[in-house]
Amino acid sequence: MPPRNTRKKFKRRLKSKSITVKLTGQQMLSLKNYCKLHETTPNKVIKARISPFTSARYRYLSEDRFVSPNQLDLFG
User: Fold this and answer.
1) How far is CA 63 from the centre of its chain?
2) Which of 21, 67, 73, 75 lies at a C-alpha separation of 20 to 30 Å from 13?
3) What are the angstrom distances between the C-alpha of 48 and each of 26, 40, 41, 45, 65?
4) Terminal CA-CA length for the chain
């Protein structure tokens, strides 16, 4: 018989923040219908949609996304 692992496993508690989103009646009805059709919850749908923007690559703003003050405004 292999020896037992006597070390205790600790679960890390994730720190989470709350966010409030206001939806119209039609938007809420659409969200509920979508969730019922795909057998999921509204929270999972919202998290799945914003996950690309909350990943590690978007944590810091890159300076190449902004226009420098010396750049010419040719099309504006």
Assistant:
1) 23
2) 21
3) 21, 11, 11, 5, 25
4) 75
Cα separation, 24 vs 40, whole angstroms: 20
Contact at 8 Å (CB) between 34 and 45?
A: yes
**Cα-based angle 27, 33, 38 (whole degrees, multiple of 5):** 125
Which secondary-structure segment (H or E) carries 35?
helix 25-38
CA dist 74 → 36, 71 (Å): 49, 9
Question: What is this structure's pTM?
Answer: 0.56
